[in-house]
UniProtKB/TrEMBL annotation:
UniProt organism field: Riccia fluitans
Source domain of life: Eukaryota
Name listed for the protein in its UniProt record: Leucine-rich repeat-containing N-terminal plant-type domain-containing protein
Pfam families reported in the protein's UniProt record: LRR_1, LRR_8, LRRNT_2
Stretches assigned to the Leucine-rich repeat-containing N-terminal plant-type domain: 30-76
Keyword terms of this UniProt record: Leucine-rich repeat, Repeat, Signal
Length: 503
């Protein structure tokens, strides 16, 4: 008992020694310090709102002090390698206000060139306004595992010298971060993803946002066998049901060209592909079905065409599928809905799909967003109320601008429908009125049936929908009284263009 206590004390003593004594090798070398000071000299920290605050990371970067203690600098304590990490955050927000900004000093030499002398594993610049091309010199920091620049206004091609970053695991350039304006000098790159980068076989994350690269994706990326995230997107901002990726956030957007190389479909570790807003073309090969770990696939706003291979249905882990804004055509395979049991958002809007909407698609029980609008779908809306337990979230469904024919039967729609957009069918829902069974959709918030030549009266059963908030029934042939529940919506009920309605 006593010896056990003594043993514990000895261990505690050793632990506290380890914690208290300054770790060997933590002290910065003269060379490392100079490299960092040269880097600092290329940047300026502007204090914006509060000139007295002491929050600028560079305030601690003082010559003659141990650089391992400087804000944003990490040293290696175990093997005495020196400075192995720089993580600079160029913006600290106090409340809603930004208190300072780090910007590059113009004409201060090749940006970041001095950093090549450091055995860096990690280089992360957040909200440092670099406003320049990626430094070619960094290609020789072969130790680098993480290279991240967020909100830095980077433009130009990726230097071919980056083929030397053979240990790189994360390559992230996010120009759109924190609302930093996109580079004014776009379009920039023309060389696409340089073939030299295929040597980076340790890559897990390849994420370029609003870099506006032109050129093609080389087939040799098939060597990135650890890759989980492949993102080269030029659409900015977050997407939601109503606000899609803007098709082009960059003036004169360049965008990747050519097709998806076969090599891409060998990367079976991929969980996410996002190539939104490029100029990619060709059809989607059946080998897409091999990427069984995919959770998110975004090919929106490109120039893909042809039939969607049924093999997409093999992507059982897929939660987000965005193919909107392309030229995909022909019928949807019913296997799509049968096997995609995890799908949360499906956007096939603004394509050239035709034929009926498969029942299986409307009955994916996890679905929260389904956009099939602006296509050539025909026939009635299929039954969407097959038994099973539905997502706890509601469904937002947009099938506007197709050739869907009436009558609309709310009793057959998914019972958790929250938003229902069936406006302006080229075929018109015509002559069929709005059935009073609309009241079965008890989660309904938004209903858009405008421009469909709908006749008859507006059912009073709208009064049974507790969450109803917005109704567009404009440009139909509705007649009779406006029921109180609709009248109560005021401006949120659009009834224009129904000359026979009594106000
Ligand atoms: C950097 O600063 C931004 C803006 O203040 C903040 O949102 C972000 O979380 C910070 N990032 C890191 C890594 O500290
Ligand atoms: C629904 O689809 C129509 C036609 O493509 C589009 O104009 C509208 O913005 C979409 N609305 C929502 C909320 O998705
Ligand atoms: C749409 O698809 C049909 C075949 O389903 C094809 O004939 C037509 O050319 C396509 N239109 C466009 C604009 O791609």
């Amino acid at each position: 008992m006593a010896s056990a206590t003594r043993g514990c004390l000895v261990i505690l003593f050793i632990i506290s020694l380890a914690l208290l004594s300054p770790a060997q090798g933590q002290v910065c070398t003269q060379e490392d310090e100079q490299a960092l000071l040269d880097f600092k000299a290329q940047l300026r920290c502007n204090k914006i709102n509060d000139p007295t605050n002491n929050a600028c990371p560079f305030d601690s970067w003082v010559e003659g002090t141990d650089c391992c203690q400087w804000n944003g600098v990490n040293c290696d304590s175990s093997s005495q390698q020196g400075v192995i990490g720089i993580q600079l955050n160029g913006s600290i927000s106090l409340g809603k206000r930004t208190s300072f900004q780090i910007t590059r000093v113009p004409n201060s030499g090749n940006f970041g060139a001095s950093l090549v002398q450091l055995p860096l594993l990690n280089l992360e610049l957040t909200f440092v306004d670099v406003n320049a091309n990626l430094p070619r010199e960094w290609g020789s920091i072969s130790t680098l595992k993480t290279l991240v620049i967020r909100g830095g206004r980077i433009f130009g091609d990726i230097p071919t010298a980056y083929g030397g970053l053979v240990n790189l695991e994360s390559f992230v350039i996010e120009n759109a971060a924190f609302g930093v304006p996109v580079p004014a000098r776009s379009p920039s790159g023309t060389a696409g993803i340089p073939k030299e980068l295929c040597k980076l076989t340790e890559l897990v994350t390849f994420h370029l946002e609003l870099l506006n690269l032109g050129g093609t994706i080389p087939d040799c990326i098939g060597r990135w066998s650890s890759l989980q995230e492949f993102v080269v997107r030029n659409g900015g901002g977050d997407r939601d049901f109503s606000g899609r990726d803007p098709s082009s956030s960059i003036p004169n957007a360049a965008g990747l060209t050519g097709g998806l190389p076969a090599g891409l479909f060998r990367l079976t570790s991929l969980t996410s592909i996002d190539l939104n807003t490029n100029r990619l073309t060709g059809s989607l090969p059946s080998s897409i079905g091999r990427l069984i770990n995919l959770e998110s696939l975004n090919l929106g706003n490109n120039r893909f065409f042809g039939q969607l291979p049924g093999d997409v249905g093999d992507l059982m882990n897929l939660q987000f599928l965005y193919l909107n804004g392309n030229h995909f055509s022909q019928q949807l395979s019913s296997s799509l809905g049968k096997k995609l049991k995890a799908l949360v958002e499906l956007d096939l809007g603004s394509n050239n799909f035709s034929g009926p909407i498969p029942e299986a698609v409307l009955n994916i029980l996890t679905l929260e967003v389904l956009r099939l609008d602006d296509n050539g779908f025909t026939g009635k809306l299929p039954k969407g109320n097959l038994p099973g337990s539905r997502s706890v979230s509601n469904l937002r469904l947009n099938v506007s601008l197709n050739y869907i024919s009436g009558p609309l039967d709310p009793r057959l729609l998914p019972p958790n429908t929250q938003d229902l957009y069936v406006c302006c069918q080229h075929s018109k829902l015509a002559r069929t009125g709005i059935p009073s069974s609309i009241s079965v959709l008890t989660s309904l918030v938004t209903l858009d049936l405008h421009d469909n030549q709908l006749g008859g009266t507006i059912p009073t059963s709208f009064g049974q929908l507790p969450d109803l908030d917005r109704v567009d029934l404009s440009y139909n042939n509705l007649m009779g009284q406006i029921p109180p529940a609709i009248r109560a919506l005021g401006d949120r009920a659009n009834l224009k263009g129904n000359p026979l309605l009594r106000r």
